[in-house]
Amino acid sequence: MDRRSSIKTLIILSAGTTLLPSCLHEEKKPSVTVKNFKISGNDEELVSAVSDTIIPQGKTPGAKDIGAYQFALMMIDDCYAPDMQQKFIKGLKEFDDFSKKTINKSFVKAVTAERNEVLKAIESKKNIPGNATLFYNNIKGLTLEAFTQSKYYLTNVQVYELVPGKFYGCVPVKKAS
Amino acid sequence: MGDSKQSRTFDAIVIGSGMSGGWAAKEFCEKGLKTLVLERGRNVVQPKDFTTTNMMPWEFKHRGEIPYKIREANPVVSRCYAFREDAQQYFVKDTEHPYIQDKPFDWIRGYQVGGKSIMWARQTQRWSDFDFEGPARDGYAVDWPIRYRDLAPWYSYVEKFAGISGNKDGLPNLPDGEFLPPLELTCVENYFKDFVSKNYKDRNVIYGRCAHLTQPKQIHFEQGRSQCQNRNLCQRGCPFGGYFNSNSTTIPWAEKTGNMVLRPFSVVHSIIYDDQKGKAVGVHVIDTNTKESIEYYAPVIFVNAGAYNTNLILLNSKSKRFPNGLGNDNGILGKYAAFHNYRGHIYAKYDGFKDTTTKGGRRPTSAYMPRFRNLYKQETGFLRGYALTFGAERSSYNDTSGFGDNLKNNLLEKATLGPWSIGSQMMGETIPKETNSLSLDTEKKDDWGVPLLRINISYDDNDEKMIKDFSEQMTEMYSKAGFTDIQTIDSKQAPGLDIHHMGGVRMGKDPKTSLLNKWHQFHNCPNVFVSDGACMTSTSTQNPSLTFMAMTARAANYAIEQLKKREL
Fold first, then answer.
1. pTM for the complete prediction?
2. Would you list which residues of chain A are within 8 Å, Cβ to Cβ, of chain B?
3. Taking the domains of chain A in order of start, what are their residue ranges?
């Protein structure tokens, strides 16, 4: 390591140690990097919790195991238009407010039964803030995409054939399976 | 390559390495001519440069989607169905190579060795005399200087080498070719085929004809290609060489002779015309990386740069003899451009054949209905006609409602077969008009000092009438066949998105009203040939690539004969 870069490292390290205590009072930093909109560590936890509730873990892999929420945030960051990103963030807050109203606590802090209650209410589409529904639909759509396009799903459930071979145009359904 | 004039002199120069340029290269090299092939983009060598070809769906970061910022910066190419994460590397981005749209025109391009032959849709139909005689019959555009009999042996020639699958249907309006076995039709496609032949004596539904090796022959194995595996990921380039592209067929074939010098990153600025010799002597090239200006020489020059870039080069080839562009004595260079009208779509469902479905591969074609309008006589309020695709298949799905364990269990279940979904798309002939034109901008130039192309092309009343007729006729046929939930859609897409760019340097018998003769030579500069889409006098309704290939092979072999006779 040359002198210049070791000094740079030192500065970064010391900046880190001095800044850390004041950061503790603010929101947690997210573990994923998004470039085009702002998201806090708490927001990230909420997105993760919603995604994991949509396709839960169990005996077989769920959303968490295939990195669905990270995929969802990456897609929103890279592929959504700026106004849709803003609506998503607005919806995230509205969703959590709705959760607090419905089960008296933040979605992240809720147990599975409570989380299910919130999602059921959202799916009922009755008196739900518009952006909260949009937030939920975004996460659901992207969680489904992450799951059904995952290596796990395409090698174990609906097997994707890269080289399928002969095409049969007209066969009895019984023989196709 | 050395620097001496001698080292920059060849027997033939081919501008472009795509669908047609690859054929010129192959023909010249095979017959022993030292040939320089100029390509403005990078080299793409199969299979090593088909970098995405074996990727699994989950290996694409955005699962195929193009990120927002790229779409925003490149609205034209983003409208192309094949501009996806797996093939985006083959498409020209709007920002890289700007052009000027006097009217909206989606100029979809592919700048690399192989050009658009890597990402094309691979449907291949011959023209018939109903197509060649269209202009002579109704007086729009000029009479073609060739007829089907001139091209028929060359269709056979290129079909045998490229490998075309299809069925011999014996139709006068869509001549049969040298076919490998066809790809099967689905149950509903077969049903509609029978229905149409029983109910409409002038109409036929046939197996799609496409450039796929359904059963390769010796010549294809010699090219290093093997059987099509029905991956239908063709836009990525095929590791099997299962479909025709220059990179797997014509270019390596030319290379193997030892007679080809392929120069990528070489944009042609203009063709050099020698006023004293009274002929074209070479080309002026700019190296796209170094911006160095280089001249190459040859007694014969083939311009296969892709229709509108061919126009651009010729318009920019100014000399004392041709101040308005090469061969442009009559002032029609860049005019009478045309394309295909792809705006009409129709979709439906069929509530039958529930006990049958498809199995195995992903078929790279569909059924096809050749043109049936205005064939034997003018019978509608519009000129010419349209062909169309016909596809019917069942998709399968899982219930995605709800959330939690229920949703997860549904996703893990075997997928349920949906109803038969049916769809057609029109491919309409457009009438070349003087006002549909290409020109050079007088001020703006690209990074290599070449003027930007201005495109002034639009639909007309004939196109609108044809879309209406397509919708009416298809709705009638679909309804009578018992299809339900019929929806017709006018995509309103701009011209150009069909990617069947044609015209501007049309062929004809008369030098006063055309630029090229029946051998694709300029009437007044016979050692320059144009055999890509630019030469098209009219467009008919067929996917045009097969015709460009046959025309190029025919023209190149004529040029070789003339060179031997020292006539060029």
1. 0.94
2. 53-56, 58, 60, 62, 74-75, 78-81, 116, 119, 123, 140, 144-145, 147-151, 153-154, 157-158, 160, 162-177
3. 30-176
